[in-house]
Amino acid sequence: VNSLKDYDISFVKLKPGEHHFSYEIEDAFFRIKEPSLIEQGNVNVHLILDKKERLMNLSFQFEGIIKTDCDVCLDPFNLPIKGNDTFVVKIVDIPQESDTEILYLGPNDSSFNIYDNIYELICTSIPMTKSCKDNAGKPKECNPDMLKFLLESNSENTNIENQTDPRWDKLKNITD
Ligand SMILES: [Zn+2]
After folding, report:
1. What percentage of the chain reaches a pLDDT higher than 70?
2. Global confidence as pTM
3. How far apart are the CA of 147 and the centre of ligand 1, in A?
4. FRET partner for 157 with CA separation of 20 to 30 A, picked from 10, 16, 54, 75?
């Protein structure tokens, strides 16, 4: 599964009622549209599509891991993610602008694509802060060399701020 077309849903041929779709997201998924916030991951996505007369309710469930960087030590680690969301597809005579919750299709449309939906689902499931301790399976220790480096460069910065400009010191001497 590694092209945009793999995420097309040809709904005209589907009977009314529930239909199940499964997608195994791998690294290639994130390369379909670039640039991507995520480059590597393994996520299982399950979609239940409930087809009605001129309406389809899409219900997504997903679980897996993505490779990302620790906010503290910048080392890569495997972040577990999971979640669910719903989406509506409406067939109308004159399609209006779609938004993040509803997709409007015209009477002659026969398919739509859910790549962006899945991508958004995965991206929005990433927490604001993430660190090695979230590592899938078992928590990881932050990279000790990096922590040491960050600590040292932090104290260096503070020293620079505390130092006065020597030119001002000279001036100060004059005025004194
Ligand atoms: Zn870390």
Report:
1. 88
2. 0.82
3. 8
4. 75
Residue 156 in this model has a pLDDT that exceeds 80: no
Distance of CA 9 to the CA centre of its chain: 22
Helix residue spans in 45-165 (DSSP H): 115-124, 144-162
C-alpha to C-alpha distance for 27 and 175, rounded to whole angstroms: 66
CB 102 within 8 A of CB 92: no
The Cα 85–Cα 48 span in angstroms is 11
- Verify cis geometry, omega within 30 degrees of 0, for the bond prior to 35: yes
Please name the amino acid found at residue 1. V
Ligand 1 center to residue 69 CA distance, Å?
A: 8
pLDDT digits (tens, 9 = 90+) for 12-28: 999 999 999 999 999 99
Per residue in 127-148, is it b (16+ CB within 10 Å) or e — as a string? eeebbbebbbeeebebbeeeee
Pull the structure tokens for residue 6: 């793999």
